[in-house]
Amino acid sequence: MSLKAALVLAPAVLAAWHPEDSALINDEQHVNYLNQEEMSWKAGVNERFAGMTYADVKGLLGADTSPHIAEYLGETRSQDFYDNITDVPSEFNAVTQWKGLVQPIRDQQQCGSCWAFSAAEVLSDRNAIQHNKAEPVLSPEDLVSCDRVDQGCNGGNLGTAWTYLKNTGIVTDACFPYTAGGGDAPKCETSCKDGSSWTKYKAASAYAVNGVENMQKEIMTHGPIQVAFNVYKSFMSYKSGVYAKKWYELMPEGGHAVKIVGWGTEGGKDYWLVANSWNTSWGDEGYFKIVRGSDNCGIETRGPPYAGLAAM
After folding, report:
1. DSSP codes of every residue in 214-254
2. Catalytic residue annotation
3. Per-residue confidence (pLDDT) for residue 129, from 0 to 100
4. What is the pLDDT of residues 110-169, one digit of tens each?
5. How would you label 258-283 residue by residue, b for 16+ Cβ within 10 Å and e otherwise?
6. What are the C-alpha distances in Å from 18 to residues 107, 233, 256?
7. Which domains does the chain have, with CATH numbers?
C-alpha cells in the first residue's frame, strides 16, 4: 500500500497503525492487528508493560541515536585486525560460547539508563571473557550517577559512555547498586555500600565498530558489543521471531541502547540476537532478534556500535 493510499484510510485504521501515546501497549486488539499482517515476527502481550502506555515507555528510551558511524571512522580499530579473521560462522551466540561469563538479562526499570546498562554489561562480559572466569557484575549506577557528560536517567551517548569507562572506570554492582529505577539518579558515591574497597574496573580501549562483518568478528573474538537503534511502537509488543519495523512506521519513539550477543538465520531471515534491559518478562525471555544486514532501525550504524577491551 502506498503512503498516499494510507493517508485516506479510515481514522480507525490509522489509529491501529499509530496508537496514541496514551494507549495501553498490551491492548490485545492492537496486538492482534499487528499479527494480521504476514511478517517474520510475532507480537504479544508482555507482562513487563502491564498497565503501561506508550508514553510510559518513552522514558526508557535514553540512547542518543543521532551519531552515525560515518562520523566515527577515525575511532575504529585497524581494519587489518578484522581482515585477519577469515571464518565467520553462520550462527553464533556469546551466551553459549562463553557459558556463565555473559551477564543475564537485567531491568533498567523506569529510568532512561539503557545507555549505561548496555555499556556496563558489555564491559562486564568482556572482562570475564578476557580473564576466562566469572568476574563481578559492574555498576550501571556508576555511569548514571557519576558520568557528568551524559544525562543519567535522561539519556546518554555510547561514545561518551565508553570514554568514561576508559578514563574513569566503574565499580562493581555490589559496591554501587542500582537505585535509579524510579527515574531519579542518586548522588555519585565515593565509598561502597557493601563495605568493599572502591575499586574501578576500566576499559583499556574504546572504539566504534564499522560494518556488519566487523561487528560479527568483534563479537566472536572478544564478546558482546553495544549498539543503539530507533524504537518504533510495534517493537514494544515484540514476542518472538525476527523483528523488522512496520513499513508505515516513519517516526521513532526514541533511541534505545542494547547489547548484541550473537547472530543467525531464522525462516530465511538473517538476524542479530540481542539482550534487552527490560527484564525477562518482555520479549523472548528478555532477548529479541532483529533483521541483520539492512540496518533496520539504524542498529548497524546509529550510536554508533561501540566496544572496548577490558584492562588486565
Report:
1. HHHHHHHHH--EEEEEEE-GGGGGEEEEEE---TT--S-SE
2. 114, 256, 276
3. 98
4. 999 999 999 999 999 999 999 999 999 999 999 999 999 999 999 999 999 999 999 999
5. bbbbbbbeeeebbbbbbbbbbbbebb
6. 27, 8, 19
7. 3-307 (3.90.70.10)
